Amino acid sequence: MDEVEDAMSGIPKKTPPPAPGMPDRRMCPPLDDFVTKNPDGSISAITKNHRIDIRADGSTRIINKRTGTVEFQN
What we know:
It is built from 1 helix and 5 strands. By secondary structure, the protein is mainly beta. The mean pLDDT is 90.
């Protein structure tokens, strides 16, 4: 994700990253503490506004935590 943001956003990555609540307009991957690798090979991740489910077959769903709306699915 960092490579895409570097190439497409025009916003330099900050190291260390900005404090929570101080966004810099870059997309950020889920923090390791909020990623669960499940025994079946699937991955679940939580971000500030979304739940990300990646199934073992590679299919992905991104769900808005506030509304429950599936915002992306493949």
